[in-house]
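## retry 2 of 3
previous attempt timed out at serialization; input unchanged, resubmitting
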Amino acid sequence: MKSPLPPGVLRDPVNLFSLGFGLGAVPWAPGTFGTLLGIPLYLLLKDLSWWVYGDAILLIFVLGAFAAEYTARVLGVHDHGAIVIDEVVGYLVAMIAAPAGWGWIIAGFVLFRVFDIWKPWPIGWLDRRVHGGFGIMLDDVVAGAYALLVMQIASRIF
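## retry succeeded, writing output
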């Protein structure tokens, strides 16, 4: 179980960003709720060029790394379960060049969550060894890359 959030933590805009605008404060499955934030963001970005989509992911990754590091220090817990900006970025990575349709949006969501929770190599290794905001973000990017790979293979089969 994640440690509770101190009162007023969501009043700080940096914490608000890293905590997924409050979705990370959900007492159960905050990572899943945080990933949900990625869906409307994906819907806003999906029709843009690959370059702009990639730049958006990079921007959120960099801002997220700084915000996650800051919030981890505020909360006194590295990669506190309420920090969910990493799930948003991981989901956006999973959805790179995804086929159109809600079935693929849901498939990307499920695949990303499976890889993020299961943490096959090297995700678990990265999660344990790479610290700070960069580390908080990196393992979810790799989980998103695994989901991306499965999505691309599945899109060619189905």
